[in-house]
Amino acid sequence: MLSNIKITILFLLLLSSCVDVHKEPVEFESLLLLQEFDLDIEGPSGLSKSYLPEHFYTVCDKTGNVYLINNKGEIFQTIELGGDDLEGVEFVEENLSIYVVEERLRMVIRLTPGGSVLDTFQLDIPVQNLNDGPEGIAYNPNVKHFYVVNEKNPAMLFVFDTLFQMIDEYPLNFAKDYSSVDYEPVNNHLWILSEESKLLARCNLKGEPEKIYQTNVPDGEGLVVDVENEMIYIVCDDTSTLFIFQLPYDASYSKSELWK
Ligand SMILES: [Ca+2]
Ligand SMILES: [Ca+2]
């Protein structure tokens, strides 16, 4: 009898130690806001680096156009695409192309910086509600993969090749929804933004969070993580604002240098 109790206690101890081992606590931290600028764009819904330093592409879900803006939110170029519901944008340096995401159409359109349409790709992803579709796109030039986040129903990270054939899919489960994604090549991280949860997560390439940052801004729908200049840029759909945050030290280039 006594040995049975001992075995039970031992089993429970082993079980609890196993649970502890697999618990990987995600740290939370607030981001330091440096500056904010008004955008003369109603409903900016994505953000990407461009071919010009300190200039970005954004898309507007109201006009369906693509805009080149500077880091003070001033418009330098308008590409009148007249899209249906543009929610994400990514500039790819190796072929000098802009890729935009049509949420309701489940489509990616490839454009030249001059605005000519080069290609359209239909995304083979599940549809439950038309407005719960793809909201963000990012490109990893090292492996030539595109990452697309689906807002919710289902909340997913999809990985595509350059012709948008699906390679992998991973469920996302750290926020209420997902509105933008950026690939950061120095530390090989994906950063994923949530509009409803007002947070930004530094993730691995499967969309699993390593650290979560509170943005405290409403309706963040576009994201650029700039490790070289140690900045995070976020655009907000509702208030038409460009927010600039300090990149946290533990996600910075200098930290990655220390690790080498
Ligand atoms: Ca939007
Ligand atoms: Ca949506």
How would you characterize the overall build of this protein?
The chain is mostly beta strands and 260 residues long. It has a single domain (29-259), classed as 6 Propeller (Neuraminidase), CATH 2.120.10. The chain contains two helices and 21 strands. It has helices at residues 2-22, 253-259, and strands at residues 27-30, 33-38, 44-49, 55-60, 66-70, 75-79, 86-92, 97-102, 107-111, 117-122, 134-140, 145-150, 156-160, 166-171, 180-184, 189-194, 199-203, 209-214, 220-226, 231-236, 241-246. It has a five-stranded mixed β-sheet, with no helix packed on it. Strands 2-21-20-19 form a four-stranded antiparallel β-sheet, with no helix packed on it. A four-stranded antiparallel β-sheet has the order 3-4-5-6, with no helix packed on it. A hairpin with a 4-residue loop joins strand 16 and strand 17 (199-203). It is globular, with a radius of gyration of 20 Å. The chain binds calcium ion (2 copies).
Summed up, what is this model?
The protein is mainly beta. Helices cover 11% and strands 47% of the residues.
